[in-house]
Design a protein that fits this description.
The chain is an alpha+beta fold and 143 residues long. Helix content is 36%, strand content 26%. The protein folds into two domains: 41 residues, no CATH class; 88 residues, Alpha-Beta Plaits, CATH 3.30.70.100. It has a five-stranded mixed sheet, covered by helices on one side. A hairpin with a 5-residue loop joins strand 2 and strand 3. Helix 4 packs antiparallel against helix 5. The longest helix is centred in the first third of the chain and has 13 residues. It is globular.
Length: 143
Amino acid sequence: MAYSQAGLFRGICNVKTSVVYSQETRSLSGMSLLPKAVLRYNRIMSKEPDTGEKVALRITARGRVQGVFYRATVQEWARKLGVTGWVMNLPDGGVLAHVEHSSRETLDELAGRMRIGPAGANVESLSIETAQPEAFRSFSIKY
């Protein structure tokens, strides 16, 4: 199936009324570039004003989340989104993350990605609680 640049642009502009993961998206040379573009577009267009105050969340993922590069993937996503904090394994097999950013929408986007997880993960539940910001400067993996 041919896919034009105009079609890609039209898909991004009509993101609120169109299905992101359509058949066209998956046929783009086997790569899913459109969802990444749509995520970036949504983040840019719906950006909350930056008040400078950080919002913090504690996110706990349960299921098959250890031994599948879950923490490393969360760290990569967090760094790309400009989120600070940490992620660590829990003794019960879960993963706990403390995340901070000035935009709750950005934290919600990270939580959405954590709900899906990397390839090989099977996230059965994700609990989100508000937390006190601790003013981290980067995102790290705790051991």
